[in-house]
Description:
Number of helices of chain A: 2
Strand content of chain B: 25-35%
CATH topology of chain A: Ubiquitin-like (UB roll)
Order of helices and strands of chain A: EEHEEEEEEH
Largest sheet of chain A: 5 strands, mixed
Helix content of chain B: 25-40%
Radius of gyration of chain B: 21 Å
Oligomer: heterodimer
Distance between the termini of chain A: 36 Å
Structural class of chain B: alpha/beta
Shape of chain B: globular
Number of strands of chain B: 19
Amino acid sequence: MELIQKHPILEFKHGKEVSFSFDGKELKGYEGEPIAVALTANGVRVFRVSPLMKRPRGFFCAIGKCSSCFMTVDGVPNVRTCVTPLAAGMKVETQKGKGLVPLETE
Amino acid sequence: MNKDLTTDLLVVGGGAAGLCAAAEAAAAGVKVTVLDSDLHMGGQLVKQTHKFFGSKDEYAGTRGYKIAGILMDEIKELGDKIEMRVNTTCTGYYPEDGVYTAMKGEDEYYRIHAKKAVIATGAQERMLPFPNNDIPGVVGAGAVQTLMNVYGVLPGKKVLMVGAGNIGLIVSYQLTQAGVKVVGLVEAMPKIGGYWVHAAKIRRLGIPILLRHTILEAKGEDYVTGAVISEIDDKFQPIGKPQEIDCDVICMAVGLTPTTEIFWQAGAKMQFVPQLCGHVPFRDKTMRTSNPDLWVAGDAAGIEEASSAMVEGRIAGYSAAKALGKKMDAKKFDEYWARLDHLRAGEVGTKIRAGIAQVMVEGWEA
Lengths: 106, 366
């Protein structure tokens, strides 16, 4: 994780460090912080691929409004990763297209 | 999983306006529930590291994130009068049943029965159309602030800032504080939109502010590897030779627009007001909209400073409490309005005053 080490005004207090997987790779992040933040700290920039034009999409608004950071988390598609807290062992995947809700795949 | 919740006053949005509305109403004895879609309360205050202007009553001279702390302390003292729900997004309002729907995370759903509501949903980032503006690395200025000031994560290594209003200037300075190189700011207007004190800090750092310039294109396949900028003429058309900039982040600080979905669903009377940066609901002096159960406060009522949002929140909370039958001190209401008028006085407030005049009604017919 690449983090700000020294800041003239702020002191950062992070929670517990946990492991999660991103497209099968194990990454580290802080529990309770947004998934998108943990991915950015690990240098991940492409979060999903748009359905029609296959365009890469990433972190944009950070307030759960723009849909750019939708990913598949623990099998659930279209999760707003910028406002969804990271938990230990989460399975985060690049979302390709619209994503399938789990019921449809069963 | 469906759950029903009941409250007297629902406050949607726990930022500067919402927290003040909740504190004001709860202090008068109203049972309040505050929803916020983010993982913590405080809205945009939590990521503002600069000292606020305005007046002493609205904590001028205090850094934004510390103001969020002050408001949270006030709310804590009110104890169980206020229920705070984070990571909870208000997803709809059904006026015919008086029901608000909300979701916590992705799989908990609520039906909220509230007698009255203050909608303090704030704002969202505006965007510019240019080729490749959808690729990763093109980021909203608010998102950059969240990343570095709340979570201590860097957005990239080299940033091109688009917009030299207060947000563009402040975020450029904050990026530098966090150790990120800001390669320059482009601003389409012929003059800097933000305060001189913020602009002066940027110039002292030697960061160029290119006026009458805009971005033409983002470069990169999977993510930003550069940008093309150009000088523009009076009609905003590119002139001269376009210039290629080496950067991995294009930070968009081209303004905000009010978040108003709930008012539309409520059928509240709305108008597009350029000075307030988008569609906003009509309101009377109590901040009540044309829907008698809904009040508005903060950026959702028109883009303005956080200091005004806090006072508007007080007014909306006060008025909702009064409508719920609580005995209120009329002097307090006048005092809040005097504070608002003071914040909007002078040349700086000209635009806001002109905007508000278009949507302020004398009172709603019963």
